[in-house]
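Appendix B, example 12.
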Amino acid sequence: MQLSHRKALGRAGEEHAVALLKSAGYEVVQRNWRDGRRGELDIIAETPETTVVVEVRTRIGDLHGTPLESVDERKMRRLRGLAAAWAREHACKTHLRIDVMALTVPSTSRQEAVRQCEAGTVDLDSLGVHLQWIEALQ
């Protein structure tokens, strides 16, 4: 899969995650927040009691590991540091947690996924996406 397909799939994954968060009662307050060259937070959402940093990982198949497996200890350290920087910058007073939404498109849908990416109309539900939403990943 070419880089442009990966970017389109990643954007679709983030859009899917935003829709899921909203349907679960979260307000999305920021997307793609960057802390200079240190990195980026995909989604920041909140309820009155909790602020949630959501890392979204989207892949086709699991030949190179699942999307969840791609969030290793090094990635978690970076997310913790970025979440703390965001919380300081925004004077966050609520409980802060880090979630991961891992979306896997079945490998049998690879060709259709690439076609949809090229067309710019990715519908993850039609591709049979599988979601793992891990709250408060340690």
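The helical segments are 3-23, 73-89, 110-119. The chain has three helices and five strands.
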